[in-house]
Structures are given as structure tokens and as C-alpha cells.
User: Fold these one by one.
Assistant:
Number 1:
Amino acid sequence: MNAKKLSKRLETVASFVPTGAVIADIGSDHAYLPCYLINNKIAKKAIAGEVVKGPFESAVRQVREEGLIHKISVRLADGLEAIEDGDKVDTITIAGMGGPLIVSILEKQPEALKNVTRLILQPNIHAKVIREWAMKNNWALLDEVILEEDAKIYEILVLQRGEMNLTEQELLLGKHLMNEKSDVFIKKWQREIDNLKRVLSSLEGAESTPDVVAKREEILHLISLVEGVLHNENS
């Protein structure tokens, strides 16, 4: 992967960036995504934010090599602190982190979101917490994508301003994803069911303490939620 040819995962993230956007890519690593968006005339200006010195220096080098120092600002900063008032950022991308970390970044500097109209978030795990955050903070799902790359399964959530009400099932599985029910979606959740059933088996010999009973009920409930979608042809 490089700034000319992104991974399938980042290429999909890039596909949701509106033409003419001013973008902040948080946790930008080598700044491949901002460079790609500028080179392909998708974004007109970009911020590459990185909290770790090594990746920050890699991003600075990459932007220089691409000749994009007048279009991309690389900043060493914690999360949304990379965004300054005068930037007029309208789109934020955060990719390659866990869902809880992405939510903590969004919650830490909420004022940085005041001019933002689109969030493109790619959690490696626990997408549910992002949907929960979105529902509480007046963001609505514009789209969701699930894809597999290098034997790993990723979800990409695209949010815009608006009210949203999701059921427990939709929070867990993704409203758009469970409606589409792609092969990758089925593969992911069948794997999750198998893991849950293994945990359930390990609890069978345990003493029936209140904690064990509650855990067993929680797992059975999750299995029921997922199987209800996988086995329903109309969902």
C-alpha cells in the first residue's frame, strides 16, 4: 500500500469522502489517505493528525515526497486537537482503531465537530459502541460497509447529522449490513456465534453463581439476536 494505491479498506473509506471536502484524517499513520484524496482531486485540503512521533515523521516525509505541503497539514496532536478553528474541516476519517477508542476521540473534543457534516469511521472491533454514540449525539448512519481483506473483516460506518433510532439488533449488527446480509457479514457473525457457543460450553461445568447465570443469559441473548438475522430470509 502507498499513496497511489490504497488498501481495499482505505480505498472504501476514501469512496465516501465528498468531492471538495476539507478532511481531517485522525491517526493518519503515513498520510496515505490524505495524499490519495488530494492527488485524486477528491479533497481540496487535508489535515493529517498523528499522536505518535514515528508515524508523524513518516507522514511529514510522505507529504513532502508527494509535493503536497501546501495542501496537507501534518500535525502532531492528540485526536481532534489536530483540528484548528480556521481549518473549516467538514469531514473526519478515523480508521484502524477499536470502536471504544474512536468514540473516546470524538468525545474528548466535541467542539472540533461543530463544522463537521460527515464522519467516516472504520473500527477494527466493537462497531456497536460507535452506533450507540451516534444515536445519543444526533448522528445518523448514511451507509455501512463490511469487507474482508488479508483474512480480516472490517466495518466502515458513514455518519451524517440527524436523528437515528436503532433497535438492539441494529446496534449490534448494523441496520444496513443486516439488511444486505452479504457473504462477509454472514461469515463474521457465524464466527461470532461459534465463539459465543464455546464460551457457553466452558460455563457448563462452572458453579451457578449469580455472575455465571447472568453471563450465560447474556450469551444466549446475543446468540438469539444474531441467529434471528442469519436465519431470517426476510431480514
Note: The longest strand covers residues 139-149.
Number 2:
Amino acid sequence: MSKTDELRAMRDAKYARARAATGRAPLTPNAPDAKPPVAPAAKAAKSAKTPAAADGAPADDAVCGHRNMSGRTCTREQGHAAKSHRYS
């Protein structure tokens, strides 16, 4: 075996150990996962509405919730007209 074949074999063994540790089946080169991702149910999307207060009225203090790269969230009101976000 050549040096590159040995390195490739060690790399493949390393990936197989990592896949076995996570409980996932080992992949063959250029093969997709065994199970394709499943789309969420349409019911869940319909049930996600504007947050409501205890009396059934929509909450007035809903925030934008936009996240920046560092994980901070925008504290402006939902649907604000300002182009910039206020992160905290």
C-alpha cells in the first residue's frame, strides 16, 4: 500500500468510528442518508399564531425576535418599520 492509501484507510476508519459513536449508519462515498428529511406537518404551521394574552386579545408587547450572528435578539416591536434592529 502506498502512503496515500494508508492515510485514506485511517481517515475512513476515523469517520466510521465517529459515525458509530453517534448511532448513525456509516455512509458510502457520494451516498445520501438512509432517511430523507421529513417536512413538518401543515397543522403545526397553522397553530403558530400571534401570541395572545390570557383574555384572548393579541399581545401588544410582541417583539421582532430577529437574531444577529452573535445570537442576540431584536427588541423592537413585531413588524417594525425601522430598517435597523435593536439587539440586547
Note: The chain is about 30% helix and 0% strand.
Number 3:
Amino acid sequence: MAYRRIVNRTDRLYALVEELRAVAPRPLSARRLAERFEVSVRTVERDISALQQSGTPIWAEPGRTGGYCLDRERTLPPVNFTPTEAVAMAVALDRMAGTPFQAAAQTALRKLVAAMQSGDASAARELAARVHLLGDGATAASVPPLIADALSAGRVLRIRYRDAGGAVTMRDIEPLGYIGKTHDWYLVAWCRLREGVRAFRTDRIVSSVVTAEVPEPRELSADELDIPYGDLRQLSLT
């Protein structure tokens, strides 16, 4: 099947993923892909690098018969998001700025658009260009990467924490969860210094180091999340 020449880079990235998916797990060489899309080998290499950096599971297989491979089990086939649904997701994910999930939200949006049908993706981009978000100057400070990855890392963190009075203490903590407010995020953890569950406001964590220690699993009970103000709701994916 011959492709028409794809000028728009975003459309080409989408087409590259689909080309690799079609033959997975067999590899395709950069030269073969360059011929298919009527671009240079260097352009293909730059495009593949951009896809890899966005989290697309593509790897290079060395050797004379090698090339680029795609892990089909970790990618989505074209999805049936409407342009309006995609823009709604973009608006929601934009609100992740200043949360532990900011970086993940950015890669999730790129994956979503890459998995859409080409025409729907183009329509979504045109619709998104007509949507403008007004900032109020009260954006929360970005959560440090080590804190954002605290739960998935599953290791003890050593932090320096500044309390409301300005005093700084060194603590070893076992991350258990997050609590999010409008402009503040808290890392909930078992604090070995205080021998109990504590909520650490992320912008008061002066520094953090991931240790090699994997703590024993610890359950977080509802009583330990008894917040004296506000309504606490558990996040749901349904």
C-alpha cells in the first residue's frame, strides 16, 4: 500500500506508529520507513526519537535485518474518540499542572491524539485552537519528579521538610498516597520520625532522595485520612 506524502508532522507520527503496529513484532528499517513516507532517513530517526520520548514503546533492533520494533501489547489501536471528547480530555489534563501527575498527563495526551483516527485528530486540533484558558496567577508549584513518582517507585524516601513555622527536619518516610486540593498537593506517608501517618505538603519538601529500601506493604485506613475540613473523595476510573 502506497502512502500519499504526509507533510504534517503530527499526522506522520501517527502513521509511523500504525506502520510499525501493522508488522509488529517484526522490525522495519529507517530506510524502509523513509521510502514509505517520502522523507529522509534522518527525518524518520528524529520522528522515532520524538515518539520514544513521548512514551511510545518503540525500540531499535540492531543487525543487518534489524530496524525499529513496536510493542503491540503496550499501545492502543486507533480509538473512536470524537474531536469534542479529545478536546475535553485536553482541558481536563491541562488542569494537572502543579500536580504529581503533570508529566504523565502530557504524555497521556500525546498518546491519545496519536491513537485517534487521522481525520478526527486533525479536527480535534482545529477545535482545540479555538479554546483558550485564562490563568488566574494562582497555579500551584510543580511537584518534584521524585515526589511525583513516590508511589510507583515503592521505596523509602529521605526528605528534608519545612513545616508551617519554617523549621526543617530530616525524615524517612514510606509513601502511601496523595491528597489534592485546588492549589496544594500532599504526599501521605508513614513518617518514621513521628511513628505515624502524616501528610506532607509537596511545596514544603525541601529535598528528597530515593533510598534502596523497599518497605513492607502498609495499608492506609480511612481513619488515618480523617481530614477535619473539606470533603475527601476517592479518585475513580469509572
Note: Residues 98 and 142 are 4 Å apart (CA to CA).
Number 4:
Amino acid sequence: MEESLKKEPLLSSTTQLRVILLLLPIALTMCMYFFFTWNELQVVPIFEKLTPQKQLAEIQQHFDMAIPEPLLPIYMAAEEKYHVPWTLLAAHHRIETRFSTLKSLISPVGATGHMQFMPCTFVGWQHPTCSGLGKGNIPQEELTNPAAIKKYGGYGIDGNGDGVADPYNMEDAIFSAAHYLAKNGAADGKIEQAVFQYNHSDEYVEKVLEHFMMYNEYHDEMRAIVLAKTTK
């Protein structure tokens, strides 16, 4: 009987062990790479996974007071018309009346409405009763009449197209604020100058700009979210 031929291993046991030890770190590295790649695919950027409503809520957590959602399209429509950042309008609204949550929308000096216009600024300083701080003695039918506002050089705007420019109507007030800020430089990028014209107080300017910069970090994201919600 022929003796079976014993096949010698291609690699000695010592060499095999060395190869295994050499390949082990590579195998571990590949495992870790695939694990983290898979994990990254599971953690899709949060704004892609969340609904627009939740996206908005996530952003609002960065603010000291949430911007009321129904106001966002109004700010943005005013931005489109007057080229004033909607975030600046929101900042003014936050500082002036805490987004209209104050018990009274009449200030001690006579500023009125959601965005706190002095009556003479709203209807125009050419009105015969306007002087001093601008409280005036303006009949309601003149204060809210677009024709009278045009006549006296005021900033009041009929934002909702109902034929009345009312500082107590949200759209009218926000559009009027945008109009005022635009005329005083905000549409040309002179934000600080425009804010100072709105209220001649360095402290006021500082507060408005602080909120403006905070909101402005999310200017485009929030605009995209609102657009997505309104086009559904």
C-alpha cells in the first residue's frame, strides 16, 4: 500500500499567527468604519426627519419667548414688500408689546397698537394737531384713513386691503412698521439707524438688535419652514 502523502501547510503556524495579528487591527478598523457609517445614516439631520411643525418648535426653543406662529407669514409678507428683514419686525414686536400680549396696547406717552406708533407718526406730522411727542388730537376716522395718512405724510399702511389703516390691526401695524423702518434705512441695510429712528434710545436699540440677531440666525430656516407649511 502506498503511504499517503502528507501535505505541508503553505504557512507555518507561526507565520499564520503573525498574519492574523497583522490583519486583526485592519478588520477591527473596518468594523468600526461600517458601524459608524451605518449609525450616521440612521441619524439623518434633524430638520430632515422632523415635520415642519416640530422643526419650528426646535428652533423656537432657542428664543426667550416663542414667536407666535400666525405672525410669521405676516412678518414675511412685509419683508417681501418693504425689503426689511422679517426678523427685525419680530424683534421690534417682541420689545414693543411682547408680541401683543401686554394688557394694554397704549403706552404711558400715547404710543398705540401692536407696534406702538405715536398717532402723529402713524397719520403724519403735518396733521394740524401734531406737536411735542406726537400724541396729537386726531379723530379716529382720520387716524385710520389711508387718504388722510397720505395727505399728512404718515407711515400707516392698510396691510390687509380692507380700506382701513389701523394700528390695532395686526397686519396693518406690522406693514406700517416695515414701511417706517424701510424709509429710515433698514431696506438699505442701515438696521441700527432705522431702529434708533423708531425709538431714540440706545437701550432700546440694544434690546431690539439683540433679538434681531438671535432671530436672524434662523432667518432662512424659518422662512423655508413657513413656506413649506403654507404650500401644502
Note: The longest helix spans residues 13-42.
